[in-house]
Design brief:
The protein has a single domain, classed as NADH Oxidase (3-Layer(aba) Sandwich). By secondary structure, it is α+β, with helices and mostly antiparallel strands. The radius of gyration is 18 Å and the shape is globular. A four-stranded antiparallel beta sheet has the order 1-2-4-3, sandwiched between helices. It contains six helices and four strands; from the N terminus they run ααβααβαβαβ.
Amino acid sequence: MNLPDSLFAAIAQRRSSGFSRLKADPVDRGLIERMLEAANWAPSHGDTEPWRFTVFSGDGREALAELFDRKRAYAAPVWISIGVSPARREDGSLLMTEEEEIIAVACAVQNLHLMACALGLAGMWHSKGSSTDPAVARGLGLESPARLLGFFMCGWPASDAPESTRRPLSEKVTWVENRS
């Protein structure tokens, strides 16, 4: 399989997998570092690289349990907080818009998720409730204008990823082409 076909296959086979689809088995730190390195290569406007991650695994999940629901903190073998820390000018104003910085972080998380899948891991970006709570953000050292955008939970898959489909691209794309 050539590189474009391999890349497309990785993209098309990526699935979000929550707690019920993860084994409790630990994940080697080297694999998580590889995922984070892939995230670090995401594009960002103005080269701001606004993504900030904190990794909780093994006994380190106790620190996460102190930030939110104890039982939930142990539901996945690895939790990675997803933060955005917007770049600032010397006068304190934002170098890029908050929206641009959040988009860059989303690109980083997509890279992280694709690498996780390529390494045989499963995971999901959880972005609601306590996963974005301002008190949890403060506990992670994310003070305004920084924000907590959620957590990426991951581990070894408990089963094969479910099949998925997408609606036809023709429902989502409008072509405007040169006319002779």
